[in-house]
Design a protein that fits this description.
Blueprint lengths: L3 E5 L5 E5 L5 H6 L21 H17 L2 E9 L8 E4 L2 E3 L9 E3 L2 E2 H6 L6 E7 H7 L2 H11 L3 H15 L10 E7 L13 E3 L5 E2 L3
Helix pairs in contact: 5-6
């Protein structure tokens, strides 16, 4: 397994390239059970992996097993390995992540399936579900109606409506489908609302949620 690395080119600029062979980082990735399944990937597949995210999520699961409680993860991402989502953000626009070292914010999609697997044999993960489904289930519509009734002007109502659509809408530039929500609770705890349907992960393999 090759590793995508950053290389300092002769022109004194950074570029991405592939390692000549396996690296310590790529060998570590193959230690995760999810990536050792023969049918998981085909030759030439590219995936992003965050061992740090796995470690933090597993530490949270261990804390929940020891002391109780729960955790709620909210971020943009997908429920499967992502091939190549690393991007740079500068001046409110997307740029190459290597274009201005030290002056560009780096961002990438979360692989919620990887976080869910970090809870295996430790805690119980539910989801992810879309941010739109989560917020609507938690009553954002009722809250929106209260805010609209108390708005002092038409301009304020329009502003509220735009903010509402940005949070729960599922079109371009909206957050409702791109952002997802996953929760982690103890293995014996009931399924929290509104995660009664969807993906469940914990002890053993990931399975379909209870209806």
């Amino acid at each position: 397994m090759k590793h995508k690395i950053v290389f300092l080119f002769l022109t004194k600029r950074f570029i991405f390239t592939l390692s000549e062979g396996a690296t310590n980082a790529s060998r570590m990735i193959m230690a995760y059970p999810d990536f050792r399944t023969p049918t998981a990937f085909v030759p030439g597949s590219r995936i992003e992996v965050s061992p740090d995210a796995y470690a933090v999520s597993h530490a949270v699961a261990r804390r929940i097993r020891a002391t109780g409680g729960g955790a709620l993860y909210v971020d943009y991402g997908r429920d499967h390995p992502v091939p190549d989502s690393l991007r740079g953000i500068r001046d409110h626009g997307f740029v190459s992540p290597l274009s201005h070292p030290g002056s560009v914010d780096l961002s990438s999609d979360v692989d919620f399936s990887f976080l869910r697997s970090s809870c295996r044999d430790t805690a119980r993960a539910h989801g992810p579900i879309s941010q739109s489904e989560f917020l609507r289930s938690m009553g954002i519509g009722a809250r929106m109606n209260v805010l609209l009734r108390s708005a002092g002007s038409r301009e304020r109502r329009v502003e509220l409506a735009k903010g509402f659509e940005r949070l729960v809408g599922e079109g371009d530039g909206e957050m409702g489908a791109v952002y997802k929500v996953m929760c982690v609770v103890g293995e014996g705890d009931p399924v929290p609302y509104p995660f009664q349907t969807g993906r469940i992960g914990g002890s053993g393999a990931v399975e379909e949620g209870e209806k």
